[in-house]
Each structure stands twice: as structure tokens, then as C-alpha cells.
Amino acid sequence: MNANVYQHFRKDEHPFIDSVGNWLEQVESQYAPYLSDFLDPRQAYILETLIRQNSDLEFQFYGGYGHAERKRCLIFPDYYEPKEEDFEVELLEIVYPIKFSTLSHGKVFGTLVNTGIKREYFGDIISDGTRWQVFVAKEIANFVVAQVEKIGKISVRLEEKKYTEIILPKDDWTREQTTISSLRLDNLISSVYNISRQRSKQLIESGKVKVNWTENTRPDFLVDLLDIVSIRGFGRIQIQELEGKTKKDKFRLLLGVLRK
């Protein structure tokens, strides 16, 4: 990968950039498609940027349904025509006693992670308020079905479903425009959730904040386009657009916000 590419991204994103470079080389040398694991929106943005700048290869994203947040990417030569099955995404439904118990995104997510499965192997967890489904990489679907028998104290079983059986997810995200003085993590959280900068800093330093599903304890961390910030007890923020600066040198942002 061209060394100049690195200057446009964070230092902790450089290993991912190197991985993308390897994927592109593999497709170009073998003249055959390459399928990535599930990528978060920020990774997908980086990958798309690198392909457009450094390669004539084609690419498509797919996460199991139209509005998927986490997606796999198929990188392929121009002769290739991808099909849905090329993305190897399986849909699993969590069957549980609906009348007597309640599931949450956090409980489902925690259970999947505790099976030892890497985050990269599963995509979105969706719910219509009652039913719960999860998209996973085909190569680990059988393992997940065999391993997950309880979520918390609730007995469950996972069943493979056809794509015609995808539920309509309940979407509580709102789009909000805001202006902030800096792109610091503590400043963003303080502004969106209307809490003090000190309170925001405490949440971050106590490990209650994740950026792109990774714990981040740096209040001065600078957020960027398509980052997803999760704040335990408050909700989530996605940086959907950076809309430039105001005359007073403040950043104009378009955000997706989920409030608990």
C-alpha cells in the first residue's frame, strides 16, 4: 500500500489498511474474488476509499438486509458477477419463551462474544421488539447453534431462517444536526446527551464508552466520519456526515442518535 495513504487515517487503523492492501493484491494476483469478514461502517468507508484510490477492482457490501450496519465485502475482478450466496451470510433466530422473559441487544451480544467467536464473524443483531435475529458468517453458523443454549438465565435455541423470514427491525435512531467546538470524544458525548464535559470524561475514563465496538478511554480521542460511539446507559451516536465549519470555526455534523 502506498505510504501516503496512511496520513489520511488514524495510526490504530494502519493494520487494517495493511490487511486491505493484502486483499487487493490477492485478488489481482489470483484473479479470483476475496470475501472479508463483517466490517463496521468506519472500516467499510476505509476499504471503499482504498479500493477507489488504488485499484480498478470491483466491490460490493452485503450484511443480510438492506439497512445492515455491519457488512461483509466481496472484492472481485471486473469479469465477475457476484450473487447473494457469495457473501456467505446466515440468518439465525433466537427462539425463547417470549411470554415469560425479555432479551436485550446487550445480552445477546454478550452471549455471542462469550462463546469465543470473534466480533468480525457476526453482523447485525435485530429485533422487532419481541423476536430477535442475528446475522453470522456461514462458516461459524453451526458452531453458534450448537454453543448457545442460554442467554443470561433464559433457555434459548438458535434456528436457521430463510431471508424471506427476516423481521422488520424496530429503528429508534433519529437524525440530528449539531455544531460542536471540537471533534473530541468527550465533547461529542457532552453535546449530544446534554451532560457536563466532566461527566462525559468520567464515562469515558471508566470504560463505559466504545468507538466502533472497541473500548476507548481517551477523552481527547478525535472522532471521524462513520465512527459509531456507544455509551453505556445513554445510547449510540454515528457520525453520518462532516458538513464543514461555521463562521465561528465550529464543526457542523449530521448524526444518527439512539437514546435509551
UniProtKB/TrEMBL annotation:
SMART domains: S4. The keyword RNA-binding applies. InterPro entries: Nucleotide-bd_a/b_plait_sf, RqcP2_N, RqcP2_RBD, S4_RNA-bd, S4_RNA-bd_sf. Pfam families: S4, YlmH_1st, YlmH_RBD. The keyword RNA-binding applies. Keywords: RNA-binding. Coiled coil: none annotated. This is S4 domain-containing protein. Residues 183-240 form the RNA-binding S4 domain. PROSITE patterns: S4. PANTHER family: MITOCHONDRIAL TRANSCRIPTION RESCUE FACTOR 1. One of its GO terms (molecular function) is RNA binding. It comes from Enterococcus moraviensis ATCC BAA-383. Gene3D superfamilies: 3.30.1370.160, 3.30.70.330, RNA-binding S4 domain.
